[in-house]
Design a protein that fits this description.
Arc Repressor Mutant, subunit A, 15 helices, 39% helix, elongated, binds zinc ion, binds manganese (II) ion
């Protein structure tokens, strides 16, 4: 039997506003002691009245515009009722039938992944269960944080596509400064609905997965507790395998919520899924409906600025970059801005012979981008930091780029200088003279070193003469070591080719 996989995603993201969703409490309480960023409103005391945060509404509309959604001109909040210790009011203020945004999409490769809706709600508090204790601790600092919820149609076809969608959505949230969307910190949380159906026995019609004929569809399973894109992909793959095997073994699949266990790489049953009726949604009586005007939407749209795709195209055109490198640079808006500052800080450099200024500009931009993508990002990745944590100014990095372009240092020296800049900061020209890393391309001086190296390695020299040409690399290495990495490797190679066959 052949099977089709049907996946839908639900993504929650904490919105980066100054204050919470319905009160003026600080929305950035990461380093605050538990229960210090709270007030009677977010603690759900009786008699308090919520006042919606306008900025949160604007940011959700912005996310909707960036994902080609239609914006509801009349929207409202609703109460979603359920009991949980970290939900102080006994209900969550959310949106039910009139979300701020609906019917959008994101392009993933050649596929259009349809977005059902994006709505605004509030986050819950946090429960912790101290190890070895018999009690649970509650922190309500997070209660009332504005939360964006995005739901896709069940049109995603694979775990890989789900991951790509999640990454693209995260990139949009970050580009527009809507959310930091860090999954490990719980600022962005993904849930996946996964079902496996017999091929040819279902169709996607009117936004629904429908059976063909009197066939009975298999239920979907919701997977939670996913805290990275890697886990998202693994959890979906696990579910596809588990459900396929169950079908082949003639077992029944339950409509349930399962949690991803990252240490064991399995999903585990948590509970049977609630339906909308269980939540007894009704309109929030304390908040009047929202009227979203054309002017408001136009103002929000004006905030959008250049998105990754357009930025990549511009970087290719303006700086002559290769598309894959431009994509790496523009994947993060802050990195793209920093790179542009570096390029604009590259000052007057002596024009090398036979070059034009236009060609030189492109060469310098290419060196800058190569060093950023290959060296700088490697450092940042190793340290789990991003460009905002960097203590190298664009002007200093631009100077390093010029030193490399002008051939004053070779790439080994460039790496040493960059390491120094990365750790301690500072001007690359000062570091260069402190460490004495100026590139040696004085042919006379190098000839002397090379003759000594050849004398000291007569066997290899003989083998090279006898036709074992790759041995040249051995000699280049020796000369580089002898000059403490300062020799110009091109000059060394050129001289070696001559001197070795003398
Ligand atoms: Zn509050
Ligand atoms: Mn939700």
């Amino acid at each position: 039997m052949k099977y089709d996989v049907i996946i839908g995603l639900e993504i929650h993201a904490e919105i980066k506003t100054k204050s919470k969703m319905f009160c003026s409490c600080d929305n950035n309480s990461d380093d605050k002691a538990p229960n210090t960023a709270v007030c009677p409103i977010c603690l759900g005391h009786p008699g308090t009245l919520p006042v919606p945060n306008k900025r949160a509404i604007e940011l959700v509309i912005l996310a909707g515009l960036a994902t080609h959604c239609t914006i509801n001109r009349v929207s409202k909040f609703d109460r979603k009722n359920y009991f949980y210790p970290d939900l102080p009011k006994g209900y969550q203020i959310s949106q039910y039938d009139l979300p701020l945004c609906y019917e959008g999409y994101l392009e993933i490769g050649d596929d259009k992944v349809l977005i059902t809706r994006i709505h605004l709600e509030e986050d819950t508090g946090k429960s912790t269960h101290p190890k070895g204790s018999d009690h649970t601790l509650l922190d309500f600092n997070r209660a009332g944080t504005p939360l964006l919820e995005m739901v896709t149609e069940p049109v995603i076809k694979s775990a890989e596509e789900a991951k790509l969608f999640g990454q693209k959505f995260q990139q949009i949230l970050r580009y527009l400064d809507i959310s930091n969307a860090d999954m490990e910190k719980g600022e962005m949380r993904c849930e996946a609905n996964v079902s496996v159906q017999e091929e040819g026995k279902w169709e996607y019609k009117d936004n629904l997965i429908l059976p063909i004929g009197d066939h009975k569809l298999n239920p979907k399973v919701e997977v939670k507790n996913i805290n990275s894109f890697r886990s998202l992909e693994k959890a979906i793959k696990f579910e596809i395998e588990r459900q396929t095997k169950a079908l082949e073994d003639g077992e029944k699949i339950l409509a349930e919520t399962r949690g991803w266990d990252d240490s064991k790489n399995v999903t585990k049953s948590q509970r049977v899924k609630e339906t909308a009726a269980d939540y007894r949604y009704f309109p929030e009586p304390d908040i009047p409906p929202l009227n979203i005007s054309d002017d408001m939407i136009a103002d929000i749209e004006a905030e959008m600025g250049e998105m990754p795709k357009e930025k990549t195209a511009r970087f290719v055109e303006q700086y002559g970059l290769k598309e894959d490198l431009a994509e790496v640079i523009t994947s993060d808006k802050h990195l793209a801005n920093w790179t542009e500052e570096v390029i604009s800080e590259i000052g007057a450099v002596v024009l090398s012979e036979g070059d034009s200024y236009e060609r030189q500009d492109k060469k310098l931009a290419a060196i800058a981008v190569n060093w950023i993508t290959s060296e700088l990002l490697k450092h940042l990745k190793t340290d789990h930091r991003d460009i905002n944590d960097l203590h190298i100014s664009p002007a200093e990095f631009a100077k390093l780029v010029c030193l490399i372009y002008e051939g004053k240092i070779n790439s080994t020296a460039g790496q040493t200088i960059l390491n120094n800049m990365y750790v301690k900061g500072g001007d690359p020209i000062d570091i260069l003279s402190e460490l004495g890393l100026e590139q040696v391309d004085d042919k006379e001086a190098l000839t002397e070193v090379i003759r000594t190296v050849i004398e000291n390695n007569p066997n290899q020299a003989a083998e090279y003469k006898g036709g074992k040409l790759p041995l040249i690399q051995f000699f280049v290495g020796k000369v580089m070591a002898e000059t403490k990495g300062k020799a110009n490797p091109e000059v060394v190679r050129e001289l070696l080719e001559k001197l070795l066959i003398e």
